[in-house]
Amino acid sequence: MPEANPNAAPYTADLALLQSAAHTAADIALRHFRGNYQTWDKPGGAGPVTEADLEIDAMLRDTLTTARPTYGWLSEETEDDAARLTKPNTFIIDPIDGTRAFAAGEKHWGHSLAIAENGQITAAVVAMPAIGKIYWATRGGGARDETGPLQVSPQSNLDQAQILATKPNMDPAFWPNGTPGFKRHHRSSLAYRMALTASGRFDAMLTFRPTWEWDIAAGTLLVTEAGGTATDQSGAPLTFNSAKAQTHGVIAGGPTHREIIAIRG
């Protein structure tokens, strides 16, 4: 596991804790990946959950809350507890982001680990074990992967942009001033889409659906610390550890972010 950025004080200790936990989560996930394990469908069409999701969730909750007993806890695979709303600091966790891809034996799934302090993300890790990538950031300390600092793309021409989005987001109803000509790409994990945007491999990512905080908390810090902007679909700032634990979609990127907001009016 890469070392934490030594210039990322005062959140270095929290980052190191998340990095260590992500390493353990990766070990568990890879032990199950493409093997035999149980899978269930969540109620209400909320998607699948696997034995690996639940094992990782239990490990992360035990490891992280033992190390930081005063922090709250918000995870996709743990029943929500409103006590987190009274905590200045809260872990926001997706044990496996991209469970459908994981269950299908595809590689684009990962672990999304973040800490929110008074609504803002201060430390974050996105780990992608099946492809051997890890990204991390601290508030004010920059964003990095194992090759060095991350920097968002400088692309400002929306029609020439490469953007990560699912096909339903291209519905003309979302683009009242006309659908732009950017090239659409897709990855299963929202956290990975944000990490790829932070690294400049894509110019932006977007989703107009209500978005769970655990899918985007870590990625939001990666993008902003890489010099980009992350907001909801209206351009409003993102805040975390809310009662609903959802945002009104998300748009993230470099200058392309501004162009997306502008064209949608």
Automatic annotation (TrEMBL):
Keyword Magnesium: yes
Ranges in a coiled coil: none
Gene3D superfamilies attached to this UniProt entry: 3.40.190.80, Fructose-1,6-Bisphosphatase, subunit A, domain 1
PROSITE patterns: IMP_2
Molecular function per GO: inositol monophosphate 1-phosphatase activity; metal ion binding
CDD domains per record: CysQ (cd01638)
Species, as recorded: Harenicola maris
Needed cofactors: Mg(2+)
Keywords per UniProt: Magnesium, Metal-binding
Pfam families to which the protein is assigned, alphabetical: Inositol_P
Residue sites binding Mg(2+) per the record: E76, D94, I96, D97, D215
Name of the protein in its database record: 3'(2'),5'-bisphosphate nucleotidase CysQ
InterPro entries cross-referenced by the UniProt entry: Inositol_monophosphatase-like, Inositol_monophosphatase_CS
GO biological process: inositol metabolic process; phosphatidylinositol phosphate biosynthetic process; signal transduction
Transferase recorded as keyword: no
Similarity comment: family membership: Belongs to the inositol monophosphatase superfamily.
